[in-house]
Amino acid sequence: MTIQPYLPILALTLALAACPQTPEPPKPRAATAPAAIETAQAAAPAAAGVASPKGPGASAHPDGIDWRKGDVDAAFVAARADHKPLFLYWGAVWCPPCNQVKATLFNRQDFIERSRFFVPVYIDGDSPSAQKLGARFNVSGYPTMILFTPDGREIVRLPGEADPEQYMQVLTMGMNGARPVKDTLAAALSAGGKHAALSADDWRMLAYYSWITDEQQLIPEKNVAPTLKRLAQACPSDQKDTAVRLELKALAAAATAKDARASPDASATARLLAVLADPRLVRENFDTLTEYAGKIAGFVTAPKSPERARLMASWTAALDRLVADTSLWTADRLVAVSAEVALARLDAKDAPLPAPLQKSVRDAVARADRETADPYARQAVIDAAAEALVEAGLLDDADTLLKAELKRSHSPYYFMGSGEEARRQGGRARLVCAVVRGRAGARDARAMGRTLRQRAGRARPAGCRAHRARGGKRHWRARADTRHVLRPQPALARTHG
Hints:
Layout: H1 35-43, E1 58-60, E2 66-69, H2 72-82, E3 86-91, H3 96-106, H4 109-114, E4 119-124, H5 130-137, E5 141-142, E6 144-148, E7 154-158, H6 164-177, H7 181-188, H8 193-196, H9 200-208, H10 224-234, H11 240-255, H12 266-276, H13 279-284, H14 286-291, H15 293-300, H16 306-323, H17 330-344, H18 355-371, H19 377-391, H20 395-408, E8 415-418, E9 421-425, E10 428-431, E11 434-437, E12 445-447, E13 452-455, E14 458-461, E15 476-477
């Protein structure tokens, strides 16, 4: 970020505070120990018999992970000495997507066991050294997770938006092969023998690479969409699932690119319909299909066309299944609800949402509020719930939800973004973004960024302290003109957002 928080679109977020421990998920998963992980653990160089990394900067946590904090160089020294990869987690205690990662990934027994075979490093985006470290590692989104070789070469940026099981597969592949994804990408785009020599895991690594947090490490941002499209086309015919994910990522990148315009594509629409009709593929790619539903549908079809109507109907049916899928984490199901709203608004930006959809949004939010008890997990869930209400135009409901959460929160002063309907112009809500910052009594609220832009018929904060960019609901990205919530620091020279 310019190492900055990304307030939700609505800017209706609330920070539930600096977490003293890793949160428990509302619905704990059974711990898993895939054979691949066990094999990798047995093969990890110089790792056998090491219970957990110790040394300067290491601190044991209740979650069982010995996160190193502070001196990253010392952590790399330890990684080289122990012949272990280094796992870098960049986050913030207030960040809802970061709290989701904690609630769904870092408390998994297989991840905790895995952490014994790498050096885990946590960088707090609000720490005094955050700006320099962010520039050093080219980080500008919360959360960002990077796996390095012991000597500091970047292997892969891990997909925080993916399902935890898929995440663990990518982590395992990265640790087993320890081949930088940059080399894999070069081989995949090569027309020679290097292309043929790639394994199924190599292709899968490219498909699950965190392109959202790449920060032009592999390719310039403008080339992401065409590159992903090339990869999808080059993917071997016996790896259709991987090709599907690459194409979906390509469509998402194209649809959200700067100055993107609708480009009706009958063949792409047909392939999307085939994916949406396959519950297994929908579940595997829920992150892309929920995050970018409106963007992709609006990109590949013409407004008010029969093709768009068919695609929207099929997409909505797939989203209905995801909303009802209890194997998905609560916040992800809420993002699916928001996706249904986005589709409904494609050709009816200014029209009220149908009453059944409004009821669906309210019901999903009420269920999430009722079923999520853990105070830290709630940070991600209530954020997603508030945004779903705002995008549905249910601003009073969102205000009520957030006010109630302030009373429930164990430390509501850390920061919160509160949004209320300031006025309506042209039938569209304009929201005011405010930041309340505080620690040890510093609770003064400062109005920030009152200029809002309209996008897709919904209010979007343009000048808030921080905002979401292409990372969407599962990643927060920072603006170059932002400052830290808790302490002013110079912005990075590079422009983000």
